UniProtKB/TrEMBL annotation:
PANTHER family: GAMMA-BUTYROBETAINE HYDROXYLASE-RELATED, TAUD_TFDA-LIKE DOMAIN-CONTAINING PROTEIN. Keywords: Antibiotic biosynthesis, Oxidoreductase. Residues 7-265 form the TauD/TfdA-like domain. The keyword Membrane does not apply. One of its GO terms (biological process) is antibiotic biosynthetic process. It comes from Monoraphidium neglectum. InterPro entries: AlphaKG_dependent_hydroxylases (IPR050411), TauD-like_sf (IPR042098), TauD/TfdA-like (IPR003819). This is TauD/TfdA-like domain-containing protein. The keyword NAD does not apply.
Amino acid sequence: MMTALSFEATQADFPLPTLGPLLLSIAEDCKRGRGFGVLRGLPVQRWTRIQSLIAYWGFSLYWGRLQHQNEKAHLIGHVKEVVDPTNAKSTTRLYMTRKAQPWHVDASDLVSLLFLKTAKSGGLSGWASSSTIYNEILRTRPDLIPVLAGTWYMDRKKEVPPGKKPYFVLPILNWHEGHLTISWNDTYYQLPPKLYPGEVPPLTPQQEEAIQVWRDTASRPDISINMWLQPGDVQLLQNHNIVHNRSEFEDHEHVDDKRHLLRLWLSPEDARPLPEHFSDLWGGVTPGARGGVGFKTGPEGGVFPLEAEVGQQKL
């Protein structure tokens, strides 16, 4: 684990006179423009792991405050297959497997990925504008808009903050102070009725249909894009109006060659306002201090693991 990187550091501690303005511009475009950006060409193939982590942490100082990505308080996550999908449980987070990840958002204002190594085949990154998906459903199936804005139970995938239930309620469509914030996590809606049948009602036929219509609309080639990202590429996405996915992949045999990405969850201090009910998942709605999972400690108690982990076992 790396713990020396300071949570209280600022851009002045990591000056980037040429690259810094570009990082700020990308973040601004994500927050108030197209919602995503890609930076290409970081020399990760000649950097050590620690150098890559430090450089990526430095980027975060230009984008927002880091938030915990799991109950172990990881502030930089490792997206890597560490669980065989044939043995994975329903509560396993899919980023730890090679299985396809359906359309979803992460529990943060911004999410970033740094590609260290790519898969042997597959593993394409897909993005779609959830605002465009909403507009298309409003045009073709307006009857589903009240359904999407209704009550949806979501599973916490066994990462339950103290005093919370293993599920929570969060509408897909959220209007607040002039913003439409869209929260979409495809597979998280089906689990609570199965795992907690005495507490969570089953999905209604209208909800089942809304899920399928959303999936089909998001996957249309005129709405979504797919990219094959390379080692050294950095992507930054805004979760409130962009959904993303990943195709299934075949990995390399040798452990040193396996697909490996680093991930940041970020909360900018100038992020949009969110309705109070986001607090049940995000631990609050104050920009710069919201998002993530776990909430066992403040972000200043986070760690920077050098490698992917499952439980206490490093892989």
